[in-house]
Amino acid sequence: MSEILTNKLTGTSTAGSILVTGEGNSTTTNLQQGLAKAWCHFEGDAGTVSVLDGLNHASISDLGAGRYSVTFTSSFNSAYYASNVTGSTTRAGSNDTNSHATGGITYEFFTDTGGFADPKQGQSSIHGDLA
């Protein structure tokens, strides 16, 4: 097996576009389109919300029980990006409140009866085009 070592990949026809051949060799995937452009793992129930690790998250603010506002370091091209959020807690789950903005997003975490509650830890992953 061969190994390629590089610090930079550049497309030949478009510098920021790299196509990868998919399984079965019959389709291609655009590498940049498939990468998460922001992600975050945070602690939510310690009294003060804190980011444990992440990418493209400038800050996270506690808006009250089960509600958090995230500001991106680099804005998205439009507010129509895809976001996934989950919480590791005994509660039923979490919900993206559709408060997408190019510079940030608000998340809400809730119990199985519908009330807001802080998760022990929350995780988010966001895909879309950066500005």
Structural class: mainly beta
Instruction: Kindly state the percentage of residues in helix.
Output: under 10%
Uncertain ranges: none
Provide the residue-averaged pLDDT.
85
What's the number of helices? 1
Strand content: 35-45%
- Outline type: elongated
Q: What's the gist of this structure?
A:
This protein has 1 helix and 10 strands; from the N terminus they run ββαββββββββ. The protein is mostly beta strands and 131 residues long.
Element layout with pairings:
Layout: E1 19-21, E2 28-30, H1 31-34, E3 38-43, E4 50-55, E5 57-64, E6 67-72, E7 82-88, E8 93-96, E9 104-110, E10 121-127
Antiparallel strand pairs: 1-2, 3-4, 3-10, 5-6, 6-9, 7-10, 8-9
Characterise this structure.
This protein has about 130 residues and is mainly β. The chain has one domain (about 35-125). Helix content is about 5%, strand content about 45%. The protein has one helix and ten strands. The chain has one helix spanning about 30-35, and strands at about 20, 30, 40-45, 50-55, 55-65, 65-70, 80-90, 95, 105-110, 120-125. The strands form three sheets. Strands 4-3-10-7 form a four-stranded antiparallel sheet, with no helix packed on it. Strands 5-6-9-8 form a four-stranded antiparallel sheet, with no helix packed on it.
